[in-house]
Amino acid sequence: MVNIQIDDKMSVISDANQYILREFKGLSEKDGIENYETIGYFPTVASALKDYVEVTLRESSCTSIKQLIELHEQL
Q1: Is 59 helix (H, G, I), strand (E, B) or coil?
Q2: What is the side-by-side strand order in the sheet with 10-14?
Q3: Which residue from 21, 47, 49, 54 has the highest number of Cβ atoms inside 10 Å of its Cβ?
């Protein structure tokens, strides 16, 4: 199955039916297990990556259109 690290906190994994975009939330203090928040479930890897771009743009600290466009081009 797919397990692709996109950046330091986001990754795409898959199962037999879908691709899952998820965000790393840290290690559990109790037992050191990695915790993830599911961002969404997608039928294609392209749709998961498209949502990654949208989420990243929405959560950015851009303060101008120019910065937003530059970030979009980077992604």
Answers
A1: coil
A2: 3-5, 10-14, 19-27, 34-42
A3: 21
Q: How far apart are CA 39 and CA 21, in angstroms?
A: 5
- To which residue do tokens 């479930």 refer? 41
Helices 65-74 + 45-58 axis angle, to 10: 150
Kindly give, in sequence order, each residue whose CB lies less than 8 Å from that of residue 43, ignoring residues fewer than 6 positions away. 18, 19
pLDDT tens string 21-45: 999 999 988 888 999 999 999 999 9
Unique residue bearing structure tokens 């081009």: 73
Q: Indicate whether this model's pTM tops 0.90.
A: no
- Please give the structure tokens belonging to residue 51: 């949502």
